Amino acid sequence: MGPGDLSRVLGALPLIADPRLLVGRETFDDAGVFALSEELALVQTVDFFAPIVDDPYLFGQVAAANALSDVYAMGGEPLTAMSVAAFPTGKLPLEVLTEILRGGQDKVHEAGAVLVGGHTVVDDEVKFGLAVTGRVHPARVLSNAGARAGDRLLLTKPIGNGVLATAVKRDDLSPALERTMIGYMTALNRDAAQAAVALGARCATDVTGFGLLGHASHIARASAVTLAIAAARVPLLDGALDALARGNVPGGASRNADYLAPLTEWSAHVLEPLRALLVDPQTSGGLLVALPPDAAAAFVARVPGAADVGDVRPRGSSLLVVE
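Predicted structure:
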């Protein structure tokens, strides 16, 4: 569901007033955080979707990494996971589901968590994901509401996998570029999250279906700041611009663009292809981390591929400025 529709749905619901709920839905964070004590809180999330790659084992890995990322984005450590699967029994061999579940289980174990069960339903379309529970110290939660003017913005994976995945579905991407894309999507955000916490971050989000700018807008709104993105410094997946030029536009891109149009001030020199990638819906993308400026270089040094892509400013007339 697009960010605009989701905002309308959630906005009609009453807010939850419970002092134990440290992070709820109000800030559009990646997971909920519920305090058990002064030193321990649970991080909880659920995420599932239809196949984005053809290989069932790799699909299980991508979906699991995507769900686990929500816990990392909050500064947490995954503890347990439960599989959520929809499968067209009788239309596909059951071995396909076995491979999806095996891929998910292997990724959960790579994260140091335990797969404890799950739930399946019969559906016309394959879907898979995880419900994940993690832990975090209440004083070290990374939240959309934690950015401060002067912070630097660090992005840990290149963007553009929505465009590339669309090209894969149309048999319009080379095997080498597909392997590169899958490599990023199956990579855990664990090390980046640990580095962010160690270096004093207060704010992070993972870049998924709402695109880089969509998730950046949630930080800007929750933190009452403006995020300035230096478009030329945003790392792009190899082949993404070429695939976009060939017409590979994912369905969610227009919803993201429509939602962000009134929230974003674009510099004239940022051309349309790059604008499209900045709103491209991602799957298992990287973390966008707000860090004090004196910690930014250390983060880039500790997290391979991380890039400084902008800064946090006092709230201006727009939530986002793309320069």
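Summary: DSSP finds eleven helices and 13 strands in the chain.
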